UniProtKB/TrEMBL annotation, chain A:
Signal peptide: none annotated. This is MIP18 family-like domain-containing protein. Gene3D superfamilies: Fe-S cluster assembly (FSCA). It comes from the Bacteria.
Automatic annotation (TrEMBL), chain B:
PANTHER family: BLR3681 PROTEIN (PTHR42889:SF1). Coiled coil: none annotated. It comes from the Bacteria. Residues 13-321 form the Amidohydrolase-related domain. This is Amidohydrolase-related domain-containing protein. Pfam families: Amidohydro_2. It comes from Bradyrhizobium ivorense. GO terms for molecular function: hydrolase activity.
Amino acid sequence: MNGAVESAMRPQGRSIEDRRAQIWACLQDVMDPELDESVTELNFVTRADVDAAGRVHIEFRLPTYWCAANFSFLMADDMRRAVSRLDWVKGVSVVLGEHMYADKINAGLAEGRSFQETFGAEADGDLDDLRQTFLVKAFQRRQVALLRHLIALGQSPEQIVGLTLAELGCLPLDDTGEKLVRRYLERRAVVGSARGDAAAFVDVKGARLSTDGLAGYLSGLRRVGINAEFNGALCRGLLAARFDLETPFVPRSKAMPASPGGEQVP
Amino acid sequence: MYRTAKGEEIFVIDGHTHFWDGSPANQKNVHGKQFIDCFYAYHSNLSPPSEKWEKEKFEKYDAKTMFDDLFVTGYDDMAILQPTYLTDFYKNGFNTTERNSAMKKSHPNRFILNGAFDPRDGSKGLEELHALSEKHKLKGVKLYTAEWRGESKGYKLTDKASYQYLEAAQKLGIKNIHVHKGPTIIPLNRDAFDVADIDDVATSFQDLNFIVEHCGLPRLDDFCWIATQETNVYAGLAVALPFIHSRPGYFAHVISELLFWVGEDKILYGSDYGIWTPKWLIDKFMAFEIPADVTKETGSVLSMEAKTKILGLNAARIYGIDVEAQKKKIRAGGGYAHLPEAVHAPR
């Protein structure tokens, strides 16, 4: 990950291998909207390559033939957007394999159409609402994880609900804690102002949590986290069974360095 | 019949079983192949290795195999046959009421035969529901709100047509509406897993019971919230239960949430046979205890009483089964002949 960032900042030396690593680093930040886990960590991405002209080719697959078409489309679109941010990228193709709607989705993606345009009358056009629903769930899940961590460290409810976002960012925490803060902050803006002087911990309507209500609030949200973890386990298991993943899939960038004969986009 | 170490007899009603034909000969198209392949992935992923079937057996098993797996090797006393038509994917359908009725006919004391309807079938469908109900004396139906039907990619229970069908069901005495809200068939873009429509109809149809199959997974969180507000909403454990083997930690969390929100009187055991088999599911379930740290958090305890309700008494209540009378019938038919002697003795 850090290697990718460093090489991105180096003006020279943008070898194919460097670029490939940058692509994987971008894809790592693309989430399955329902599971709120990275598409690379979920083993969805099977290929990420680049040719000499800077054209990127990504292939991915999902745990079942029936995975919701809208989520599939969303992930593909997010992958394309994420990779397009790299300044050297001249084009991105994303291809979904072995799916009920693979042909339709792939054609839509290739032509740069929206989900609604791709599916026409069959789509309800409410993809944005759905995306928002899952962003809120992700916010809740990440918030609960962070709150639990802070409570376990001995922070009192008064201290926790009194924090501003700026103060949260400055808390001295270990690596786990820092990661939880980072993940939480990535979704904090979903529910309201994320300025430094805003309350760090708010509910989905943007209201600051109360000291007295914190325990009840946490137990109410517990089921959101459990649901997501359960789904994550199910999806990983189905993917492994479907593609007979005896050994974990190793992204090419993380495999043996300088392995010859790496495939490239023709 | 499950018998505890102390000799207590637990009457088991399996809330979710199928007698399907997913064989290549019956497949109409690639979707039919992918459908049974997907079921097989669920089976292979979550079954203990010793319980894993060959693909061929999984695609199509015969009536005797099913009977033995449920009632001889397994602990089921009775099983509810839930149909899954899928006539767009399979020449003769995947698991129709008609196909299931052969099982019921051979073993009338063992099976409860459920029907199905689809509100998109209009007035013709209503007539068919009347006929089906008359023929089989239905007490329950299984619905797939996410099922693909021509141009339509699913429906909601709140649709006007759904209301007409639910009204008809109520009149016909079909009290138990099993709704598949869970890993589903071809959800396109509508959020096919959404359980909000259950909330609405459960309020409107107080005399009906709504059993949310797979307890709303992958929307367990929303489902728990709804079920706690409605007295006639139940959780079917199929798909959640097999995690007891591969991910007992997750199962502990799920069952404790269900006990906390839904309550032990409204949870129904289901094997989802032939995806999983009752023997190992119930052995593990009976041996299962919620770990102390989870209980500390939720206050939920999976007591022997709760297990008894989940395994059979809850389903007996909503299906109007007199457990003692049913045991007598099964015993008289030799249904417990394979059990150790002590079990025969009436308590």
